[in-house]
Fold each of these.
Amino acid sequence: MRNPRSIPSLTLLMLACLMPPLFAGSVKAYAAPKADFARYRSYRWLPPRVLTKLGVDENHPAAPVLKEVVGRQLSQRGLNEVADSADLQIQAYLLTESVPQLEAVFFSTIVVSQGDVVAVGGPITTIGRYNKQGSLYINLIDSLTKQSAWLAMVSDSLPNRDLRPEEIRAKLDKAATNIFKKYPVKKK
């Protein structure tokens, strides 16, 4: 017969393997196979969108900061902002979400004489918390083909409170810097 302590241990191990990993600041970027980054010289903004508890907000205070920090990264790669006839259109989304984190699962066991386990009950309680996470999505759309030339996203942990303006700027600057490390054209 199995050791009575091994069953809950194995169950916890299996649950831990099923939970998705959370990597703060991990960047995912995808370039279109036929995108010609050498010909892109200009860009124009589509309205940045910020997803709030009340819905999508195109006039959120973070939008101008987002345009500033992403614009700086684009200009360092030789792209200039124009009003019309741009090579690329910039589509950006910001969102925050609460991500559940399972801390512990407690099981009940019934033990009968001499340490033999008669029954292992199901989980009787769990302990967890919610972590606040912010994500930035940037989509560079080729104006000629109307398809994505490059798409990148990054997620990072946030404090469980409203951010002050300087914290918003610092977080967005860090996110944009991390995202553009994966951009196919290096800084000039």
Amino acid sequence: MKQLITLLTILFIADSQLSAQATWTVSGTNIYNPNTGNVGIGTITPANKLSVQNAAQLSGMTSTISTTQTQVNTTDLGDGAISASYTLSKSSTSNQLVTRVFQLGSVNNLTGGGAVNYMRVLNIANNTNAGTITGDLDAIFIENGSTAGTVTNSRAIRINNFQGTNQAGIAINVMGGTNHTYALLGTNNGAIPAGNWGVYAQGATDKNYFAGNTGIGTTNPQAKLDVNGNIFCNSKVYIGTVDAATTTQIANYALAVNGTAIFSTAKVKSYGNWPDYVFDDQYKLMSLQEVESFLKLNKHLPGVPAAAEVEKDGIDLGTNQSILLKKVEELTLYMIDQNKKISVQQDEINNLKNQLMVLQKR
């Protein structure tokens, strides 16, 4: 009898405790609990209105925020502390203009007459604070790909910016680091290149396209490429349209211009065989008779390329200047020699005049 009384007492106490707890109430198709505390799933000490420990899957969730701030706190749950995904069935018959996997903000996410100094739809801060990360530290890591299906245009990130007096599609600031790169494009393994770079693009077969004028060292470019400073190129430079035939002709030249070019100053590298040797006593100057014979036979000066050679291969500015100077120096020697002969002849003429005057006086 004593044991029966004890059991009834335990059941009475348990029933009293269960009765003291709020019960779930059905109202139409809704179910609610008037409990004013917190609800815990996977935890007996919920810290918020709804606390979920470990994995959670939400499908078709809609959130309406009426307060001024909303904060989501997550503990260390391993990979994918928060995971949001959306799948459109391949058999779906819906005709959707835009499918958004995850969307932040709305078209009008700031209303009213107040002023806001700064506004960010998504603000991400990624700090180590302490400890060592042996791999990569990425604030955002995005992969965009498909193992099946057809995609017309594929972009990992697409940004449209419509407003602002001073506006930018992307603004990137690197605040520190020994080797830092503001924009790293197309690297094979994602490694940061040594040194400091504004934009670093890698890809042997890639082409880069810029519409409008591009300025380097100037904020007011006046041409498709406007460079205010020095240019160094360790490969070939082609200016103007180059066809297959022209490419064969210019294959051995570092700079090829198909069209006219203008210089305020042009300098040819130092020339090692400048023709001052013409004035050396050992230099053998052709006689004018030899020059005449050569001209009659070849129709150009000795040592000067013929018209057919120039038409085929063009001329080297340094070599051509050397040839012209050589001819000027040879011409100077001819003139000096002719002047000597004229002086001797003039002396002889003067002597003959004097002799004639003497004879006339007799």
